[in-house]
Amino acid sequence: MSEEFENALQAMRDAGYKLTPQRKEILAYLMTHETHPTAEMIYQDLKNQDKSISLATVYNTLELLLKTQLVLAIDSDMDGKRHYDYFGHPHYHAICTNCGRIVDGRNFDLSQLPNIAANETGFLIKGYEVTVEGLCPICQEKLGINN
Ligand SMILES: [Zn+2]
Ligand SMILES: [Zn+2]
To answer: Which residues are recorded as binding Zn(2+) (predicted)?
Structure first.
């Protein structure tokens, strides 16, 4: 078990949540998948290895993880669904307005954003999301766009 997973579990304990096996499974899934899955996708994948898991458990666990800020929700206009993302390492997202693909962007340091925003606005910052929109390389190719 990685140190990062241990730290994430500790953050859940600190927030007062019990670490049931299924909560751990769902957290581990998000940490190892950069696919920005929906709750249904997580459920479909996990039920192969754990027959006792339910979609309700997945949803409930995702709600807890959102509260701990370990996980970020991305509401996609493309499919009208909520996608989930492990956010232990703050990053921005590039979303394709043609196919809906969500790609992680890690080449920009967002870690100071909450502090800067808090100082500027006086807000108690509870979360944030930074998104850029455009056409992904595959869609550029498909649509015959040369840049
Ligand atoms: Zn695309
Ligand atoms: Zn992401």
So the answer is: 96, 99, 136, 139
The alpha carbon of 83 and the centre of ligand 2 are apart by a number of angstroms equal to 10
Q: Strands 92-96 and 102-105: what pairing?
A: antiparallel
Instruction: Answer yes or no: are the C-beta atoms of 41 and 100 closer than 8 Å.
Output: no
CATH code of the domain in which 52 resides: 1.10.10.10
Instruction: Give the integer Cα–Cα distance in Å for 147 and 87.
Output: 32
What residue numbers bound the domain in which 94 lies? 89-147
Which residues make up each annotated binding site for Zn(2+)?
Answer: 96, 99, 136, 139
